[in-house]
Prior knowledge:
By secondary structure, this protein is of the alpha/beta class. Helices cover 20% and strands 27% of the residues. It folds into two domains: 2-49 and 168-367, 3-Layer(aba) Sandwich (QueA-like); 53-152, Beta Barrel (Thrombin, subunit H). The protein has helices at residues 140-150, 190-198, 218-221, 234-241, 254-263, 303-308, 314-326, 357-367; strands at 2-3, 15-19, 25-29, 42-46, 49-50, 54-59, 64-72, 83-89, 112-115, 118-128, 131-136, 151-152, 176-178, 202-208, 228-232, 249-252, 273-277, 292-296, 330-331, 337-341. β2 and β3 form a beta hairpin. The longest helix is centred in the C-terminal third of the chain and has 13 residues, at 314-326. The chain starts with a strand and ends with a helix.
Amino acid sequence: MIAAHQPVQRPRDARLLVVDSRGRINQAPRSRLLDFLRPGDVVIANDAATLPASLQGVHLGSGAPIEVRLAGGSSLAATGVHRFSAVVFGSGDFRTRTEDRPLPPNLKAGDHLAFGELSATIETLLDHPRFVSLRFDGSSAAVWEGIARHGRPIQYAHVRTPLALWDVWTPIAALPAAFEPPSAGFALDWGMIRAMRERGMTFATMTLAAGISSTGDADLDRRLPLDEPYRIPETTASAISNRPAGGRIVAIGTTVVRGLEHAADLHGVVRAGAAIADQRVGPTSRLRVVDAILSGTHEPESSHYQLLRAFAADATLANAHATLELRGFRTHEFGDSMLIEKHKRSRSGSSDETVDLEQHMDRVATAA
Length: 368
């Protein structure tokens, strides 16, 4: 796949790879997304706005420059802005690949960090030299002001120009809670949402504090995703419960899957309210709520790809990945998209086998 290096949320040539419940693969312009949905579907997106969660500052004990990337919090409340988990790097910025960034100076509990007039204290080290829990000093209003003034969106080297905050806010962005954008929502616009309703679909939202996607360290990356607070409104829980027969729950992004599946009881009933998604969704997960997911394209080693394994058999995903590679799909947050329907299972409980890649490539070429 090709890294999408321009911060354009809805390029005209954006593409969609569709994987149905039997593993059949098709390709279409992403503008045709609604053609692959149906009346009665409930489409749910994450409306979290993205924080400027990258802070350039100074480690006061040594005077060394650092970058702090806020990685997680414990609450969606506006007053819960003091304590965060964070990844700390040494000197440099997004222009250097994350995995090549130097370690920060030796950190210990009680160290003070400064970001202009905004200051923070390291409370604990989280079993890694660059992973810490920190507490910002001052009132909630002062902390919000300091983050807004001195923070920038978390950014990786594949995007070549500095990101502005509006580059990483989805069209439905509301509460500032995400540390990186819930970027599957970049595919949406208000015209598409209106068209959903005209076609008999229901659009709903939830809020989940989407965490970071990469720390640059293999050991830390294995801990991803970190715990993420979320809130499901009454209207969304009601839409799920009252969808018509045959209507599917379609998640816009991995964060929606994680929140809805965490909130579901053993019978798949989702209740409104706030909680913290602390589970991993993967190949051994039995999805109780979500029937299909719109997601970006992901490399197999990523935590996002592991979540997709709850939807489709490994052979199906391997075929899909081969198609993405062969057709030059774009990856990362400004890239192309995939719509994956939850696989059907045979009477024995195993998932249906996908068709061979060569057999479906003619259909892909025709759809292109």
